[in-house]
Specification:
The chain has 225 residues and is α/β, with parallel strands linked by helices. Helices cover 42% and strands 21% of the residues. It has two domains: 2-122, Response regulator (Rossmann fold, 3-Layer(aba) Sandwich); 127-221, Arc Repressor Mutant, subunit A (Orthogonal Bundle). It has helices spanning 10-22, 33-42, 59-68, 84-92, 105-119, 152-163, 171-178, 187-203, and strands at 2-6, 26-30, 47-51, 74-79, 97-100, 127-129, 132-135, 140-143, 146-147, 169-170, 211-214, 218-221. One of its GO terms (cellular component) is protein-DNA complex.
């Protein structure tokens, strides 16, 4: 997942971001509501962890603005307020769930898994492209029954290709989707990951350049013959 944390307290935001990155998520941190709005417009986030009490623009207003602008990211509201009325206000503003501070990281992870399952109900449980198969539930990849061992970054890149099989993905789009804004990664990093991914697919028996280069633009899955 690409996750945006909108939280002004670094004592919460930094350890939370570190824990999520250890789970192989891509994480950005915004420290006020206006910055959160700007971040949300700059990347395609799967989940936004949104504090209720924020400087410059409060979480409820930001949540309403995101929903009014048709942002489809899951929104999990984080707040120290634990009253029914506050929860109702947050959910009515468009939040998908509500977690009260202080919270346990294991509980947050469970809430995230539940939200992810809910959002995936309309998505195919098994992604296929010819003999190439990816199972999002077990995070396994096979080609003609041969198991392919991928790094977490290679896996999420391949999953993105398989969920968008006809789309040409630019290097900048891949970079924006799967690398933090504050990480110094460039297009050379993308080329390296694509090369490694191609080599692993080929070693499992996949045709050469299953991920093909569209010169001057980016990459896409090669059409099945």
């Amino acid at each position: 997942m690409r996750i945006l944390i909108v939280e002004d307290d670094d004592r919460i935001a930094k350890p939370l971001a570190e824990d999520l990155r250890h789970q192989n998520h891509v994480v950005d941190i915004a420290r006020d509501g206006i910055e959160g709005w700007e971040y949300a417009q700059s990347a395609d986030y799967d989940l936004i962890l949104l504090d209720l009490m924020l400087p410059k623009l409060d979480g409820i207003t930001l949540c309403k603005r995101l929903r009014s602008a048709k942002f489809h990211a899951l929104i999990l509201m984080l707040t120290a307020k634990d009253t029914t009325s506050d929860k109702v206000i947050g959910l009515d503003a468009g939040a998908d769930d509500y977690l009260v501070k202080p919270f346990d990281l294991d509980e947050l992870a469970a809430r995230m898994r539940a939200l992810s399952r809910r959002s995936s109900e309309t998505k195919p449980s098994l992604l296929k492209h010819g003999d190439l198969q990816l199972d999002p539930i077990s995070c396994s990849v096979t080609y003609a029954g041969n198991v392919i061992s991928l790094t977490p970054k290679e896996y999420i890149i391949l999953e993105y290709f398989m969920r968008n099989p006809t789309q040409v993905l630019t290097r900048s789009a891949i970079l924006d989707k799967f690398w933090d804004f504050d990480k110094s990664s460039g297009e050379g990093t993308i080329r390296t990951h694509i090369t490694n991914l191609r080599n692993k697919l080929k070693a499992a028996g996949s045709p050469e350049n299953t991920i093909e280069t569209v010169y001057g633009i980016g990459y896409r899955l090669k059409k099945e013959s």
